[in-house]
Amino acid sequence: MDLDDIDHRILRVLQKQGRMSNAELSEQVHLSASACHRRVQRLESEGIIRGYVALLDARRMGMPTTVFVEITLSAQADEVLEAFEKAVSRIPDVLECHLMAGSADYILKVVAEDTEDFARIHRQHLTRLPGVAQMQSSFALRTVFKTTALPV
């Protein structure tokens, strides 16, 4: 799908404030309300806009600890990868899982209440993942920068 300057403006605004009304959005992107509404519907139907979410503050939700876990699997066969991916997707504390090129096969982003809670997650979930040969965890000391907005 070809995106023009107006589409980019709409996407930039919605990434920062997704709950605004169509009237507010159309005013910010300098477009009539009906034309703006049609464009947003097109962006949604084309899958450019996948959905709308509320971004929660992990610290205020009692999960201030972020841990990045590097996973190396015992094999690279499709069935091993599929079994791992299916199992890891069911762990509620895992926010992200990325298949990697490099020293680790996967990197997980895990949230926890504290180190004891991470020890529980590790013991109850991570150690039981299929096909894992090696695991290394790194605790984030502080989040310097974080965004969900793509550069458009």
From TrEMBL:
Keywords: DNA-binding, Transcription, Transcription regulation. SUPFAM superfamilies: Dimeric alpha+beta barrel (SSF54909), Winged helix' DNA-binding domain (SSF46785). GO terms for molecular function: sequence-specific DNA binding. SMART domains: HTH_ASNC (SM00344). Gene3D superfamilies: 3.30.70.920, Winged helix-like DNA-binding domain superfamily/Winged helix DNA-binding domain. It comes from the Bacteria. GO terms for cellular component: cytosol. Residues 3-64 form the HTH asnC-type domain. InterPro entries: ArsR-like_HTH, AsnC-type_HTH_dom, Dimeric_a/b-barrel, Tscrpt_reg_AsnC-like, Tscrpt_reg_AsnC/Lrp_C, WH-like_DNA-bd_sf, WH_DNA-bd_sf. GO terms for biological process: regulation of DNA-templated transcription; response to amino acid. The keyword Transcription regulation applies. It holds the Pfam family AsnC_trans_reg. This is Transcriptional regulator, AsnC family protein.
